[in-house]
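Narrative of activities, Objective 1.

The group set out to show that a structural description can be obtained from nothing but a protein's sequence at a throughput compatible with the screening campaign. Below is one input-output pair from the validation batch, recorded exactly as produced.
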Amino acid sequence: MKTLIAALCLFLVASPLALALAPSRGTRRPASSIGSGWAATSNDNNNHQPQQRQPDDESLASSRRTFVSGCLSSLALLQTAVHGQAQAVRAVGGSEIDCRAAGNCLEKGELDGALGWYWGAKDRCEATDPTCGAGGKQLTVDETTGQLVGKPVPNGVDANRITHIALVRVDIGREESSVLKIGLYGNDAPASVEQFLDFLSETGFATRSTSSNALGELTAPVAFGRGGAATWIDPGTSIEFGVPSQSISFAKSKGRAKVLDSFVPQPRPSANLVENDAIVKEHDSAGLLSVPKKGLGYGGTGFESDDECFERTFLITDAAAPALNPTRRVIGQVLDGKSMAFLERLSNLPTKRGIRGVIPGQTDGPPLPKVVVRDVAVATVVNKPTDASSSSS
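Output recorded for this entry:
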């Protein structure tokens, strides 16, 4: 910008000089007049013309000095303004803030406020800040510790129903890592929990024989600890996990950079295997672990290939999601506040929205940073007998 203004000043300074040197229309200046104080008499076709007074060197130099001084002053003011703008906070959407406070953004036609967009608003937080949520909303932070605060741990389920505890370490990029502590309702949904435990185990979940056949085809169980990742985020609502590609995970486990042509992935299991599992509770809060009612492998659109059918194996809610009740089953929950805080961080990561990002409300998608599973550990819970049962024995 400063370069543009300087060039404009130079052009405007040179323009009066060019105009002074150029003869007026219909006037021919004698060659001898140039350089003689610029006082010239035009004499075309022997017709006498009145003598025109031209500016002398001193007056022209004074005009140039005045003009250049004005340009330099304007340039200094512009530099100050640009510097101040660089230091200023983002523009404030006054009408947007007012309608949010009044709760009538939609009636006022303020789509930014109604849809939760924060384009240019000063309350938009920095995306690289771990406490910055989806859409630029600042997440709740403990004033004492400065740590992220998650939603309350789910309640309403008897602790004695939890039969297994899973610890899943998740890495966000290369510098951020934490653990999700999850409890499973093995007594209420035994078939679904059994599938899930196989998926978490080192051996993995298999729906077909894992040995090579006479045709030389190779296959292996799908295991969350090998190639598991966060695969889809609905900001502030839920985050889904799975294995994006069985063939890629198998190749990496064998130290190969290229997918093997002879590899055959595990297909979806039969939906009949889990149809008798009970519905423990609805998706009425944050921190609930949910799987498809048909079983693992049915969490996507249904059109995925066998290689990608476990890409969205299970999800964890970050808010009440009653729309999931018809198609999904809750089989577990997050167990502690630290895990809930990490869940809040995960479910508010920025997403890859592509062209859908220009459509209002379309904020879900794969996580923008790489979110992978580093390690998984599972333990069986031994419930202690109550006082009544121990006294009766």
